[in-house]
Amino acid sequence: MVTLWNKAKETQAWLRKNVPDFITIKEWPPYSPDLNPLDYAIWGYLEAKACEKPHESIKSLKKAIKKAWDEMPDDMVKRMVDSWPGRLQACIDAEGGYIE
């Protein structure tokens, strides 16, 4: 059985082998929403879009989330990914503290 933990370990092994500048798990900040595009941009977008109206069921909410994901503008995702190096530098400059 493939678990998420096993997949994460496989992904990290692949990154260590194929991405020379990969940051190891020991180097990752323990709680880093300032550095995770899902946390600092994507989840908020999905929530705003999916929850524009109340849902009467989990199924309805899941459908709205999937629709919002599918309709998310590619340029928005690109901007979030492109902003990551600057956010990383800001976190380094803040010595691991929170950034705005």
Automatic annotation (TrEMBL):
InterPro entries on file: RNaseH_sf
Domain of life: Eukaryota
GO molecular function, one term: nucleic acid binding
Gene3D superfamilies: Ribonuclease H-like superfamily/Ribonuclease H
PANTHER family: PROTEIN CBG27172, TRANSPOSASE IS30-LIKE HTH DOMAIN-CONTAINING PROTEIN
Name of this protein: Transposase
